[in-house]
Specification:
Layout lengths: L1 H12 L10 E2 L9 E2 L2 H4 L1 H20 L4 H24 L5 H19 L6 E2 L10 H4 L5 E2 L4 H23 L16 E3 L2 E3 L6 H10 L1 H23 L12 H28 L2 E2 L8 H29 L3 H26 L1
């Protein structure tokens, strides 16, 4: 498992060095606020790839729980690499204010929707599941399984990285490449209340500058603690057994939370793209920058389904060769996913 972890980490972090076009304002009309979006960061193929991986994470709980940890680490690695690419674009002088919010939703938020309440990774008190409010608030104090400590810490690193980035974006980052007078609206939802603030509204800026210092400090602490936990998990072996996976009732409750939160996040991403005159026509789905991430998402989802079919063949198929064929197809598919990731990195 550790060798797979480090191989995935190396290939995913190579994405940080990928050169992207960056987002910028169209110069065909001085009055226009149209943004030429970076298709290599949040084009349709990129977004669909994230959505398919999110769907694979949810289905894997029921079809292939042994794959959840792999999806956990992979999604977290992509999140960290993508956030790093945003700051690479900022260093190059591109407009990244909108890009930051979109990538933040696609990475830190969507990954937490997929895995924060995963019944494969956590154990909760059965009595807590009887409360109707659980569907909105989530189970209280879930205990992360010992075998998921490293994967969970890696996932929280992406969230911590986003948390410490907020003050920088509102003190300086949002103004790099920004066209004066152009508004950028994002969608914000707190419980049942949704509104679309302009991130350049002075009141909004002051509020985030002040309040953003709190998550920044917490994020710094999170990074130190989770890095320590990753090293601890790598050095200390698990000596005892773990409880079985959650029962069907818990899984359904968790899945409901995942679907509600994930649906909101996806809606916010698409709303930000459509509501800010973002032109993503420069990249088509058949281009490598769009096609490879889309294939990664599709192959990941297919791998989950194939793993279930392989298990099904082993349970019911009278001919052992069927199960062997499933094993061979699964091995080939894993190889294709790894090749696609390396192609994207290069």
């Amino acid at each position: 498992m550790h060798s797979r972890f480090f191989k995935s980490l190396v290939s995913l972090l190579c994405l940080v060095t990928t050169v992207s076009a960056g987002s910028y304002y169209a110069n065909d009309d001085p009055e226009s606020c149209k943004v030429i979006g970076d298709v290599s960061m949040y084009g349709l193929g990129i977004r669909l790839g994230y959505y398919l991986q999110w769907a694979a994470a949810i289905l894997s709980v029921y079809l292939a729980p042994e794959l959840v940890k792999t999806l956990y680490v992979t999604f977290a690695g992509v999140s960290i690499a993508s956030l790093a690419c945003v700051f690479q674009n900022l260093r190059s002088g591109y407009f990244a204010a909108l890009e930051f919010h979109i990538i933040l939703l696609l990475t830190a938020f969507l990954s937490n929707s997929a895995f924060r309440w995963s019944p494969v990774a956590t154990v909760v008190d059965q009595l807590n599941m009887s409360s109707p409010s659980t569907i909105l608030t989530g189970p209280k104090s879930p205990k992360v399984r010992r075998s998921f400590w490293a994967a969970g810490s890696f996932l929280r690193l992406s969230s911590a990285m986003a948390m410490i980035s907020v003050p920088y974006m509102y003190w300086r980052g949002n103004y790099i490449g920004h066209k004066e007078g152009c508004k950028v609206h994002i969608i914000v939802t707190i419980v049942a209340y949704t509104w679309t603030p302009n991130i350049y509204d002075p009141k909004w800026i002051i509020a985030i500058k002040v309040l953003g210092m709190i998550p920044a400090l917490l994020g710094a602490v999170e990074i130190v603690l989770n890095m320590a936990l990753i090293f601890y998990s790598a050095l200390v072996r698990i000596t005892g057994g773990e409880p079985d996976y959650s029962d069907t009732c818990e899984k359904i409750t968790y899945t409901s939370i995942q679907l509600v939160t994930g649906g909101l996040i996806i809606g916010h991403v698409e709303g930000a793209v459509l509501g800010n005159q973002v032109d993503l026509s420069k990249g088509t789905l058949d281009s490598s920058g769009q096609l490879i991430p889309l294939l990664i998402g599709a192959l990941t989802l297919l791998l989950v389904i194939l793993s279930y079919l392989r298990w099904l063949a082993g349970q019911f198929a009278p001919i052992p060769s069927i199960a062997k064929a499933m094993d061979a197809m699964s091995t080939w598919l894993k190889g294709r996913i790894l090749i696609q990731r390396w192609d994207k990195a290069v």
